[in-house]
Amino acid sequence: MKQNKNIIVLIIMFVTTNILYANSSDLKKIFLDKKINGTIIISSLDGKTEYIYNQKRSEQRFLPASTFKIPNTLIALEEEVIANEKEIIKWDGIDKGWDVWNKDQSIETAFPISCVWFYQKLAERIGNKKYLKYLNRLNYGNKMTGSDVTTFWLEGDLKISAREQIDFLKKLYKNTLPFKNEYMNVLKNIMIVEKKSNYVIRVKTGLAMNVKDQIGWYIGYLEMKDNVWFFATNIDINNKNDAVYRKQITMESLRTKILF
Question: What average pLDDT score do residues 58-84 get?
């Protein structure tokens, strides 16, 4: 009887290991070919199929950079520090370092281009106390901010792992985050970067540049007719040219595994 129980346990372990966590040699090749150090998780909606490169790193926390604009958008709308995704905040006329940032912005325009100054204005209106409340409610990463409410996701204390990004995105998809559905739907619409007859891709990029160990992110989900695939990629940024690999590695990995 004891022997039978042991066999059952072994079968369960085998199934769990092979269905839930498939460490992938072809994903490894994609990273190695580009000489990039990083990680990627591709996870089905039910989590029963996952493809991972560098599983140890996938559990390691890093600055979220502009991927934090996903929860930040929801927080701003929920707290009504801005009326809606179309309300304009005026540009102050000071060069922000990038031409597309040097104009009036709304959530609708600022989110796709990761306009930092716009979200810093929202952060000033939200305040550190409310951020800490939401980070705890959302169980977002290490739930810390830092000394500056306008930069804590860029160079402060907030950290999150690729695994935690996946978990958060799944809650967004299912509308189980503690925000109004209308706000989550607004966010989902502005996250769309590609829409075809057979799939939709929603994405947010991130780039932590003003720190010693620079990190790049590409996170989101691929919605198909028969499944939804969530992805979170982060890479080391050793020079400015590395940033393009965030998307390249992710899309190549998705097309290798999902064949969409």
Answer: 98
